[in-house]
């Protein structure tokens, strides 16, 4: 019998099922929830795809797929698997490209879902934004459509490989957010890179595993050089 192993990560328990009749039955019969995301970095022109899987539904046990189960990103295998980050699979592309996720279960069922650039809502930073205060909170405006219900905008800065804390905003209709000076406690006056990320409303999948369902999410990242001043 072909050994099929599925590693399940619960809230506080790690269960390993391997080389048993129960394992193969579980893989073949339990619907698997697919959580898919692509981040399009329009400054570096990179695409980063991320996939997570759960048993039965969005609240089920996290899955690491082994044995004959497989996952492809535009026909390529994942470059990174993280057992510490929600059992996530990552693939990075050196261009802005639509991403097709091909998930094959151990029973040879195959599910194809695509996340496209056209699924995103654009965001950018205006030319007038040139400074961020290290002493006072700074309002960070952004261009593009006002924030929609279910979306989120996140801002952070990077200076000499040090990343600040995250400022987030999810209020529908806004076109700016406040970046607290307290998030720059480890920064100094000088230049830094400011990043803004717009995460879209979750969308339904085209192909799901039975009743398990799933979602696909896009995010757009842009960055610019700013001056941190008093």
| Unreliable stretches covering 5 or more consecutive residues | 1-27
What portion of residues is helical? Answer: under 10%
Determine the number of helices (DSSP H or I, runs of at least 4 residues).
1
Write down the secondary-structure element order. Answer: EEHEEEEEEEEEEEEEEEE
Strand content: over 45%
Cα distance, first to last residue?
68 Å
Largest sheet: 10 strands, mixed
Q: Write down how many β-strands occur, each being a DSSP E stretch of 2 or more residues.
A: 18
Shape: elongated
Which architecture of the largest domain per CATH?
Answer: Sandwich
Q: CATH topology of the largest domain, what is it called? A: Immunoglobulin-like
Keywords: Signal
Signal peptide: 1-20
Protein name: DUF4397 domain-containing protein
Could you explain the architecture of this structure?
The structure is a single chain. The protein is mainly beta. The strands form four sheets. Strands 3, 4, 7, 8, 11, 13, 14, 15, 17 and 18 form a ten-stranded mixed β-sheet that branches. A three-stranded antiparallel β-sheet has the order 2-1-5. A three-stranded antiparallel β-sheet has the order 6-9-10, with no helix packed on it. It has one helix spanning 21-29, and strands at 6-9, 14-17, 32-41, 46-55, 62-65, 70-73, 80-82, 88-93, 99-104, 110-115, 131-133, 138-141, 152-159, 162-163, 167-169, 176-179, 190-199, 214-229. Helix content is 4%, strand content 47%. The protein is built from one helix and 18 strands.
Brief description of this entry?
The chain is mainly β and 230 residues long. It is built from one helix and 18 strands. The protein has two domains: 6-118, Immunoglobulin-like; 121-202 and 218-229, Immunoglobulins (Immunoglobulin-like, Sandwich).
